[in-house]
From TrEMBL:
Coiled coil: none annotated. InterPro entries: HATPase_C_sf, HATPase_dom, His_kinase_dom, HisK_dim/P_dom, HisK_dim/P_sf, Sig_transdc_His_kin-like_C, TCS_sensor_his_kinase. It is an enzyme of class 2 (transferase). It catalyses: ATP + protein L-histidine = ADP + protein N-phospho-L-histidine. The keyword Endoplasmic reticulum does not apply. It is a multi-pass membrane protein. It comes from Cellvibrio mixtus. CDD domains: HATPase, HisKA. Its EC number is 2.7.13.3. It is found in: Membrane. Residues 234-448 form the Histidine kinase domain. This is histidine kinase. One of its GO terms (molecular function) is ATP binding.
Length: 470
C-alpha cells in the first residue's frame, strides 16, 4: 500500500459501487414485479372498456360477421390485442394482430402463449353478461422493454454518480489526511540540530501515538548525539595527549642518539602513523552524516580550493610537483569545515600518491545549476575494478604496504564520501586526462552569491608551485 489516500478512495468507491449494484439489482427485480402488476391492471381496465364498446359495435354490424379492428400505428411500443368469443367458441371480434381462430381455451386467468413468432402475455376473462369471453394479449418483449426503460431511468443516475462520489471521497480523504501532511512538512523543514519534541496540541487522536513514538526517537537521538559529542571530545584529549608525549620523547631520543638506531626510526614512523590514524578516525566521526550537526551557509568553493593549495605548498615543493589551478567563482551551500576537509583529503591524496615532479590540477567549474570540483593527477591512478572499494573504510590498494610506500590508513576517501553525502553531492572516479592518473569529480548544487559578499579578486587561472625549487 503506497498511498493511504488512494487505498481509502479505492476501498470506499468499491463499497459504494457494490452497495449501488446490490440496490440496483434489488430495485430492478422489485420494479419489474411492480411493472408486471401495473401491466396486468391495465389489461383488466381494458376489459371494462371492451364491455362498454364491443356490444354497441356488434349491434351495428351485420349478423354473424366477425368485427375486425384496424392495425395500430407501428410507433406504439406496447399495445393490447384482443379477441371476443361467444361461450360456444364463435369468434365475434378481433384486433388486427390476432388470428381469425380462437387463440386458446376459455379458462379464467393470466397465462403465456406463443403465436406470430412472439411470446404473448394473455388474460382470459368472461364478459360482464357472462355470455362471452375476452382474450387480451400483449407482447412479452414489449412489456419488458417498456418496464426496463422506466427502471433504467432511475438506475442510470446511480451509476453516473459513482465518479462524482469518487471525487468527493478523494477530496474528503485529502482533508482528513492533512494533519499527516502537516506533520511530515514540519519534520521535513526542521534543522538537523532541532531535536525538540513535536507539539501535540490539537493533534488528531490517530496521530498521537505516531507523534509520541517520533518524540521518543528524537529523545534517543538527542542522547546519542550528546554521547557522540562527549566521546569525540574525550577521545581527542585521551588519544592526542599521550601520542604527543610519545612523539616528543621519540624526537628527543633521536637527537640524543647518533646515529639513531633503526628501531627508534621505526618507532617514530609508527607514532606518526598512529597519530594520523587517530586524526582520521576522529574526523570520520565528526563528518558522518548521521552525526553531523553543522550549519550550512553559502561557501565560496573556489576560494576554499585556493586556500587548500596554499596550505599544501610545502608538500608540493618537497616533491617538486607542478600544481595548476583553473576556476570559475563557484558558490555552494554547505559547511565550510567539512568542505575544507574534503579538499584537503583529495589534494593530500593526489600529492601523496603522485611521484616526484608530477602534475596536479585543481578545477572549479560552474555548469548551469551545478558546480563541479575536479582534482586530477598523473600518478598511478586506481584500476576500474577497485574504484568502488576505495570508499570502504580502512581499504587500501595493496594493503598496508602500498606500492607508493606512502603511509596511510584507508580512511581518506571514506571521509570524502561522507562529506559528499552530507552535501547531497555526487562523486565519480575516472581516468585522468593525462596518460595515466586519477580524476576525481565532485558535483554540487550551485547556490547564488550572497548579496553581502563581494567576489574575490581573480587570480591567474594557472598557478605553478615547483619553479622555486628547480
Amino acid at each position: 500500500m503506497k498511498s493511504i489516500r488512494r487505498f481509502l478512495v479505492i476501498v470506499l468507491v468499491a463499497i459504494v459501487t457494490l452497495a449501488n449494484f446490490a440496490a440496483a439489482v434489488r430495485g430492478y427485480l422489485g420494479s419489474m414485479d411492480e411493472a408486471e402488476r401495473l401491466f396486468n391492471q391495465r389489461m383488466l381496465q381494458q376489459v371494462d372498456l371492451l364491455n362498454y364498446t364491443l356490444p354497441l359495435r356488434a349491434s351495428q354490424a351485420d349478423a354473424g360477421a366477425v368485427i375486425d379492428f384496424p392495425a395500430r400505428p407501428s410507433d406504439i411500443e406496447s399495445s393490447l390485442e384482443f379477441q371476443w368469443v361467444r361461450n360456444d367458441g364463435t369468434l365475434l371480434a378481433r384486433s388486427a394482430a390476432m388470428p381469425d381462430t380462437v387463440l386458446c381455451s376459455l379458462e379464467e386467468g393470466f397465462r403465456y402463449f406463443n403465436f406470430n413468432n412472439y411470446r404473448w402475455h394473455l388474460l382470459v376473462t368472461a364478459s360482464a353478461d357472462k355470455q362471452s369471453w375476452y382474450i387480451l394479449a400483449e407482447r412479452d418483449d414489449q412489456r419488458y422493454r417498456l418496464a426496463e426503460s422506466m427502471i433504467l431511468q432511475a438506475v442510470y443516475p446511480m451509476v453516473l454518480a459513482i465518479p462524482l462520489i469518487a471525487l468527493i471521497i478523494w477530496w474528503v480523504a485529502g482533508v482528513g489526511l492533512r494533519p499527516v501532511a502537516k506533520l511530515a512538512t514540519e519534520l521535513r523543514q526542521r534543522e538537523a540540530t532541532d531535536l525538540y519534541p513535536i507539539e501535540q496540541q490539537d493533534m488528531p487522536i490517530e496521530l498521537v501515538q505516531l507523534t509520541q513514538s517520533a518524540n521518543e526517537l528524537l529523545r534517543r537521538l538527542d542522547a546519542s548525539f550528546a554521547r557522540e559529542k562527549r566521546f569525540s571530545g574525550d577521545a581527542a584529549h585521551e588519544l592526542r595527549t599521550p601520542l604527543a608525549a610519545l612523539k616528543i620523547h621519540c624526537e628527543n631520543l633521536l637527537h640524543e642518539l647518533h646515529p639513531a638506531p633503526e628501531s627508534v626510526v621505526k618507532l617514530q614512523l609508527g607514532i606518526e602513523r598512529m597519530s594520523y590514524l587517530v586524526e582520521q578516525i576522529l574526523l570520520l566521526n565528526r563528518t558522518a552524516p548521521d552525526h553531523f550537526m553543522g550549519q550550512f551557509e553559502p561557501v565560496n568553493l573556489t576560494l576554499l580550493a585556493k586556500q587548500a593549495v596554499v596550505d599544501y605548498s610545502a608538500p608540493l615543493a618537497q616533491k617538486n610537483h607542478q600544481i595548476e589551478f583553473n576556476g570559475d567563482e563557484c558558490w555552494v551551500m554547505g559547511d565550510r569545515a567539512a568542505l575544507a576537509t574534503l579538499l584537503n583529503n583529495l589534494l593530500g591524496n593526489a600529492i601523496k600518491y603522485t611521484p616526484a615532479n608530477g602534475i596536479i590540477v585543481v578545477n572549479t567549474w560552474q555548469r548551469g545549476k551545478d558546480v563541479v570540483l575536479e582534482v586530477m593527477d598523473n600518478g598511478p591512478g586506481i584500476p576500474v575494478a577497485q574504484q568502488a572499494r576505495v570508499f570502504d573504510r580502512f581499504y587500501r590498494m595493496g594493503g598496508d604496504r602500498h606500492n607508493s610506500q606512502t603511509p596511510g590508513c584507508g580512511l581518506g576517501l571514506s571521509i570524502v564520501q561522507q562529506v559528499v553525502e552530507l552535501h547531497a553531492a555526487h562523486i565519480a572516479l575516472t581516468q585522468s586526462r593525462f596518460d595515466q592518473g586519477l580524476l576525481v569529480m565532485v558535483t554540487f548544487a550551485a547556490c547564488s552569491l550572497p548579496d553581502s559578499t563581494t567576489t574575490f579578486e581573480s587570480a591567474p587561472s594557472r598557478v605553478f608551485h615547483h619553479e622555486q625549487n628547480r
